[in-house]
Amino acid sequence: MPTDHTHYLSELKSRLETDLFDRVIPFWMTHSADNIHGGYYNCLDRDGSLYDRKKYVWLQGRQAWMFSKLYNTEEARDDWLAFAEDGIRLLQKFARRDDGRLYFALTEDGKPVHIQRKIFSECFYVAALAEYSRASGNPEYLSEAHTLFEQIWEWSHNPALVGRPVLSGQTPLSPLSHPMILLNLIEELEPPELTTTPRYSQEIDECIRKMLLHVDSERKLVRENILADGSAHDSPEGRLMIPGHSIEAGWFLYHWAKHRKDGMLAEQACDMIRWSFDAGWDPEYGGLYYFLDAEGYSPAQLEWFMKLWWPHTEAIYALLLCYLDSGSEDDLKRLQRVDEYIDTRLIDPEHGEWYGYLDRQGIPTHRVKGAAYKGCFHVPRAELFSIQVLRESLT
Amino acid sequence: MPTDHTHYLSELKSRLETDLFDRVIPFWMTHSADNIHGGYYNCLDRDGSLYDRKKYVWLQGRQAWMFSKLYNTEEARDDWLAFAEDGIRLLQKFARRDDGRLYFALTEDGKPVHIQRKIFSECFYVAALAEYSRASGNPEYLSEAHTLFEQIWEWSHNPALVGRPVLSGQTPLSPLSHPMILLNLIEELEPPELTTTPRYSQEIDECIRKMLLHVDSERKLVRENILADGSAHDSPEGRLMIPGHSIEAGWFLYHWAKHRKDGMLAEQACDMIRWSFDAGWDPEYGGLYYFLDAEGYSPAQLEWFMKLWWPHTEAIYALLLCYLDSGSEDDLKRLQRVDEYIDTRLIDPEHGEWYGYLDRQGIPTHRVKGAAYKGCFHVPRAELFSIQVLRESLT
Q1: What interface predicted TM-score (ipTM) does this complex get?
Q2: Is A107 an 8 Å CB contact of chain B?
Q3: Which residue intervals of chain A are DSSP H helices?
Q4: Which candidate in A120, A156, B111, B136 could, as Cys together with B107 as Cys, close a disulfide (CB 3.0–4.6 Å)?
Q5: Chain A residues inside the 8 Å CB shell of B304
Q6: Is A235 an interface residue toward B (CB < 8 Å)?
Q7: pLDDT in tens, B55-87
């Protein structure tokens, strides 16, 4: 890394610390706590006031994971541990069904409202259990996490098991979301630095192999859904690109490349991040598009042109990893571009936590800070991880 | 109706005729036909070229209905009848399951791809069967339509029957969509002018009563989802308004008010249309919003601020009915406002058929003319019905 950029990196670190510790974490601690029923309110308006009392299970798991991670890696604060426990208790008591599946949404007092035919409620619960097990020092949570992970592994290989109808006209496409979240979960279940006898080496290999099939090196793009052999399918689903998603997948891969000291994999991971960023960036108004079609057709999703918060959280951390790895000016420019967009468009210095939904021009379309899919997760995770790698690289 | 506006109305009629007969109908006849497998392609780019080969069952039914309706009420053209038959055949052969349910999406050669846990694939098939029965002179289609309608009636009163999980934390909310589509279907199944012994008088009463519960006369707004007694539920679902939807519901009601010569119901229907239009219109950029929250919160839907084609097709026909009924300047202004928006933003004089999806500012976000939910239906239906009432009122 060229020394003349240490000033920028150290200033970036200090801005991230201010946002995370003075604005983002206090926002969630103040406004999401439910001292009566436990767990966390999710639907928070710009100033943190409640506009819906439902509790979303993805976000319960993610927030319990986040506070456990802060406790384990940043500072052993009792209030963070207690806040994590609040979520774990609600999930254990109300979110799980007897068959291992978890609901998607609950009433504030824990009654089920909705269940998805997907594996993600379960995935984020596994991550929360694993991190909270280390925070609380109680191995039973980790053991529950392993058992459920093995169920999720089965479900991800056979979607009929979570209730998705299998019909004769369907073209079986492999989504990037499955191997990437499974790979990330293995890092949570058995962090290489804490694990002496890893259980999931074969599973890691399978996830990495499957993820790389989505990368088209010739076209320098990443497809969200592919045929089993990695080839492209000519349909809206087969042409779909989700830049934020493939950037996130890139840093999941990069972590494993570093664990395995695999330089070639690290380079593949960085290319996945760079190509996704370059394809996803709107040259006219800035910001990352939500969805794109690899052949330039209009994406099927109505909101394809919107700029969401989470592709930008994933981009800042992922591009920081790329830049710290390569030291290249191109990576620095990408990093600074997303940093400036975040700073001017997404951060809310007045009330804390980022805006979630902007139009193509970068104006907020929604006032909310929390919603069914936006909780205490992407912003604090990206900020915490970025601060931690910056701290390491700047010393 | 003040005579000095007949010039505007007659000029409007002539513009609608040009668009419908020179641009919209030819677009679908040229580009959606599948002469090999039957049925209609739906996913058509701006110029009519195919970007996906899947066939969407809502749109198969709606297009078969549309060409049957053109044949029955406009001109008995053999090519229109044959084109309607194309859709009916595909639906009968491939879309129906043994239990009466219909799939949502098929491959081009009819294999099932997706099924919804909703009643609408079946509803649009019933409408198509009824209209095609009159076009073909074959009463068996109408008889099939009645049988399926009675099944749909049951399903609409018990959503668990189409596979929606019933969970203890759910607040049962009544959607406007059910009574409005059922009321519209009864008009298709037994058009009052052709029916001597109506079967569904009680069902009509129930639909009208249920629909009117959604109208809040004090606040002058229409809620999409209400508690069983008509009261509001304080949640994003309970606060939801869909202006295009309640405008469409308004003209469904207005038709029955006219059939029943019920002046008070006609006035309620017109108010439903006016209030929905006034609440939904964007004072800054024009056009009708897709979704709104009755208390001014950010709607949960990401695309709430977009301007879609179909609320505007429903508005032009509904406001025309209101104006022809009232002769009021306010209704004329509303009509002219939506007419101008359509003329400048939605119509594509070059390739035919309207743009479907605009951003808040009124710029197309999608090039497509046909998609999973946009077919040969809202535009030609509103234009045909508008032309027909204008023709009647101008003579």
Answers
A1: 0.96
A2: yes
A3: 6-17, 25-31, 57-73, 78-90, 120-136, 139-157, 177-189, 201-212, 243-259, 263-280, 309-326, 329-341, 378-394
A4: B111
A5: 365
A6: yes
A7: 999 999 999 999 999 999 999 999 999 999 999
